[in-house]
Design a protein that fits this description.
Elements lengths: L1 E9 L6 H12 L11 E8 L3 H16 L5 E7 L1
Antiparallel strand pairs: 1-2, 1-3
Length: about 80
């Protein structure tokens, strides 16, 4: 059994309204000097198979369901 970590983030240049709103909220709470805030989704998924099979399966999960390839990048790693 392996645990794959899938990290999904918006591509450069794609608007991130959630990140922008989070930045505004942090500043409203008094946090100073907050730079750009970006949202990222991270999934930890248990799968069976070798290291290579786990990465391949994670990439397929992203292509079929978890990520939108038009606006998102993803990275699959095995822990």
């Amino acid at each position: 059994m392996a645990v794959i970590e899938i990290r999904i983030e918006l591509k450069k240049g794609v608007a991130d309204p959630e990140g922008r709103n989070t930045k505004k909220a942090l500043e409203a709470l008094g946090f100073e000097g907050v730079g750009e805030v970006k949202t990222v989704k991270v999934y930890d998924i248990e799968v069976e198979g070798t290291h290579e099979e786990a990465v391949s399966e994670g990439e397929e999960m992203c292509r079929k369901l978890l990520a939108n390839p038009v606006i998102q990048n993803f990275k699959v790693t095995v822990r």
